[in-house]
Design goal:
alpha/beta; about 35% helix; about 10% strand; globular; binds beta-D-glucopyranose
């Protein structure tokens, strides 16, 4: 499919057509005319004019470049005038997973000092550091980790989303980083996609109702004194556009929809994000009707910056420009000409600097395009107060390590965990549980904070973590032990489900191993082939006559009919993050024997009835899910789910092989 398409692109280039002709005709009318809510400040623009007038071409080109901290030294920042750095997933100062806020700040200070060094007459332009705080400041040891977005989608609670944004901003401010690459506004249409969990929903309406709130939480309310002050960070709406709609859920693949559909489904979150004043937007790896988004001038420049009046800056994704025909990691005038203002070029930034310089000199990139890109970057840096903020370590919340993973912040995450749980089955009203029972806690996810946190957790893939990597966090087992032992019950933890005295109930926590991006792409949604042991375990417990409560950890709805059949109750817990204790608070009654927290989560993704239902979205023709969008039982519901759901697995037997470490997702 993709190869065929590449061929088409080459053919189109050979016959010298506009790339748009491969992509079909664009429809400007499909896109809304918006007005930027961020007031243009004349003094600020004058200050930018003055800077631009005095900057050398080298200084301007440097502003457009974002390298990765492993490949950029402070001296590089000084020598090449680099405008930005990022730390990628699993990248920390000194390669130290346990880096402290002071370690992060020391590095941030060194980059900052280099960027404002005026020796030799250069302009002092503070560097901007971006990080993926996508479920809390998730690269930082000891941080509060929120449920991934798929779980937040189930809460249906935009006010909570905003609160999560505030906490995430605050904890990010502790390490002195003023910019996060979040929120992800993907509207996920095929759950085989490895990034499904980064999306709030398959339904554009939920994404639309959350996007603006998350931006407000991260940046503050436009016009308020607190807007972009020291406890806030800049947000990034990503990935523009159509990331959740690729054919077969292929990560970085092609989204084939026409403009009207592209906007109606995939564009909705951007409307409210822009309305809340989001200042950076990340271009997507995917193509739109065959054209890579990084080279899509119509969408990036004509629609986003033109018709939709976006006057912040567009940042590229990790070497995303290199996927444009004719480009490489180290050279890509086409991306800049299409409208990318800042290029994320983690390692090959030096080559990119040199080639861009040449392209500006030769006129391939016009001076006006260069100046426009620099202007946008300077504007956002000024709006964020970076020119006045001083060294990162001098900012109000910098180094306040007591705020990282504070009790108050964890309480917000715990609330999110409770509200994200979706009760799919509760036959015989086995839930809620009394606290004074003898409980067996089993399954591969029962006591595994890494597994319950998913990808983008300390490491990029979320793998190679142990419970010791999460000081202050709780596993799901920890929470169960706490409530049960405090009420005189007993708890046995055994991943494999062994017991000596027959328990009153078994809580089996199982689910997907962590993954990120293309590493999570799947051929089918049948859960079992990758974890046959869990079904065996459920069967065994059932055969022993023990009531079974399944708690399922996953980054997407998966076909689990066999597991549902073996479970009295079944909870979709998604990827709850560091506060596993929130699960027990819902499964068990309170101290007083009353229901303390009922289930309130509702599916924001449809749950498949058969292994063929890869594309299963509310509102589509022939919609026949097992559990529909919006489904979610409460303790008041008496309905029973059949115990003999079809277990026909068709040809979904493929066992997903992990991609070797060191591989990347680039095609
Ligand atoms: C991802 C982005 C992320 C970036 C930086 C890319 O591979 O697609 O979502 O922000 O890396 O880590
Ligand atoms: C980085 C990620 C990035 C990915 C892109 C990884 O090495 O850590 O942040 O998204 O590469 O392929």
């Amino acid at each position: 499919m993709i190869r065929l398409f590449t061929l088409c692109v080459i053919l189109v280039q050979l016959i010298a057509c506009e790339p748009e002709s491969a992509a079909g005709t664009h429809d400007p009318d499909a896109w809304p005319a918006l007005t930027s809510p961020v007031p243009i400040n004349a003094d600020r623009e004058a200050r930018i004019d003055e800077l631009l007038a005095n900057m050398s071409v080298e200084e301007k080109v440097g502003q457009l470049i974002q390298g990765e901290i492993k490949s950029v030294t402070p001296q590089d920042v000084r020598d090449y005038h680099l405008g930005s750095v990022l730390n990628g997933g699993g990248s920390f100062p000194d390669l130290n997973k346990q880096a402290t806020p002071d370690d992060w700040l020391a590095m941030a200070d060194a980059y900052y000092e280099a960027s404002v060094d005026t020796s030799g007459g250069r302009a002092a332009i503070p560097i901007i550091w971006g990080t993926d705080s996508v479920h809390g400041v998730n690269n930082v040891y000891g941080a509060t980790l929120f449920p991934h977005n798929i779980g937040l989608g189930a809460t249906r609670n935009p006010a909570l989303i905003r609160r999560i944004g505030e906490v995430t901003a605050l904890e990010t401010a502790v390490i002195g980083v003023p910019w996060t690459f979040a929120p992800t506004l993907a509207v996920v249409r095929d759950d085989r996609w490895g990034r499904t969990y980064e999306g709030y929903s398959e339904d554009p309406e939920i994404v639309r109702s959350y996007a603006g709130e998350m931006v407000r939480g991260l940046q503050g309310e436009l016009g308020a004194d607190s807007h972009l002050e020291d406890s806030k960070v800049l947000a990034t709406a990503k990935h523009f556009l159509g990331d959740g709609g690729t054919t077969d859920g292929d990560d970085q693949g092609d989204n084939p929809t026409e403009d009207a559909e592209l906007f109606r489904i995939h564009g909705q979150g951007y409307v409210t994000a822009l309305g809340a004043g989001v200042r950076t937007i990340m271009a997507s790896f995917n193509s739109s009707r065959g054209q890579k988004m990084h080279g899509n001038r119509f969408l990036l420049t004509d629609m986003l910056k033109g018709k939709m009046d976006f006057d912040g800056f567009v940042v590229g994704d990790w070497n995303g420009h290199a996927q444009i025909p004719g480009c490489s990691n180290g050279s890509c005038a086409a991306a800049i000409n299409a409208g990318i203002d800042m290029i994320m070029v983690p390692q090959d930034w030096k080559a990119f600097f040199e080639s861009t310089l040449e392209q500006v000199t030769s006129g391939e990139i016009s001076t006006s395009r260069l100046d426009d890109a620099v202007r946008r970057i300077l504007r956002v840096k000024m709006e964020a107060g970076l020119f006045e903020a001083g060294r990162p370590s001098s900012r109000t919340y910098a180094g306040r390590s007591e705020l990282l993973g504070s009790a108050e912040n964890r309480a917000v995450a715990r609330q999110a965990v409770r509200e994200s749980l979706v009760l799919l089955k509760n036959n015989g009203q086995v839930l809620p549980l009394d606290r004074n029972l003898d409980v067996l806690v089993a399954g591969n996810g029962a006591d595994d904070i890494g597994r319950q946190s998913g990808g983008w957790t300390l490491t990029w893939q979320g793998t190679e973590n142990t419970n010791d990597d999460f000081p202050g966090a709780t596993s799901i087992y920890d929470g169960i032990r706490e409530v049960v032992t405090s009420a005189g019950g007993t708890v046995t933890l055994s991943a494999s489900g062994d017991w000596t005295d027959k328990p009153d109930v078994a809580i089996v926590v199982f689910g997907e191993l962590p993954y990120a991006e293309c590493f999570g792409d799947r051929r089918h949604l049948n859960y079992d082939p990758n974890d046959p042991e869990s079904l065996t375990l459920l069967r065994q417990l059932k055969a022993d006559g023990i009531p079974v409560v399944s708690v399922f950890l996953s980054g997407r709805p998966l076909w689990v009919n066999p597991h549902l059949n073996q479970s009295d109750a079944f909870v979709a817990a998604w990827l709850p993050g560091s506060e596993g204790a929130g699960v027990a608070e819902v499964l068990f009654r309170g101290d007083d024997g009353e229901i303390a927290h009922d289930f309130s989560g509702k599916l924001s993704f449809s749950w498949p009835a058969s292994v063929e239902q890869n594309v299963l979205n509310v509102g589509s023709a022939d919609y026949a899910p097992l559990f529909a969008y919006g489904y979610g039982l409460t303790y008041a519901d008496q309905g029973e789910v059949a115990d003999d759901l079809s277990t026909d697995i068709g040809d979904s037997t493929f066992v997903h092989q992990p991609i070797a470490a060191g591989d990347s997702c680039a095609e």
